[in-house]
Design goal:
mainly alpha, 5 helices, globular, binds protoporphyrin IX containing FE
Length: 135
């Protein structure tokens, strides 16, 4: 699999970009038009399916990269942080889309999920658990 390292890494990075963009746009649409067309599209089955598909590709490429570079969560701290914060970001996203009762709650949870997601990117770029806060 090592001979495909560059391609797998590209798939991982592009699915990260797509996943973040879809999450950003869904939140924006929901905040712009709850109960109206944009909100309905954001929560429609095709959009949900696109999001699940991209996230599945992202994680599959992540598992492949893990075996290629032989670095693993709970052994390598930067990967531990990625896995834990991915769970946090997904939790915040689910809370924003499913459980938030007010617009302010929804906006706050959505923004927090995005901030965590961006921090994960910085952890990945730095290969350091502290990400942008690394010295
Ligand atoms: C939680 C499951 C994940 C695992 C196990 C994982 C694992 C990995 C591995 C092994 C690499 C290759 C590093 C290298 O080439 O040395 C990588 C790269 C990368 N990952 Fe992930 N990843 C995960 C999730 C994510 C998420 C959720 C994001 C973004 C929010 C992300 C963003 C990136 C980026 C931007 C790179 C390229 C870093 C570079 O410039 O070398 N990953 N990931």
């Amino acid at each position: 699999m090592i001979e495909f390292y560059a391609e797998i890494r590209l798939v991982h990075i592009w699915s990260v970009i797509l996943s973040g963009t879809i999450f950003f746009l869904r939140g924006l649409a929901l905040l712009a038009g709850e109960g109206k067309a944009p909100g309905r599209i954001a929560m429609s089955m095709p959009v949900k399916l696109a999001s699940y598909t991209v996230d599945t590709v992202l994680l599959t490429a992540a598992l492949m990269l893990m075996t290629v570079v032989q670095q693993y969560p709970f052994i390598d701290p930067w990967l531990t942080v990625k896995v834990v914060l991915l769970a946090v970001s997904v939790g915040l996203g689910v809370a924003a889309f499913r459980f938030a009762r007010t617009r302010a709650e929804r906006a706050g949870l959505w923004a927090a999920a995005l901030a965590v997601f961006l921090f994960i990117v910085s952890v990945a770029r730095a290969h350091d658990a502290l990400g942008i806060f690394a010295g």
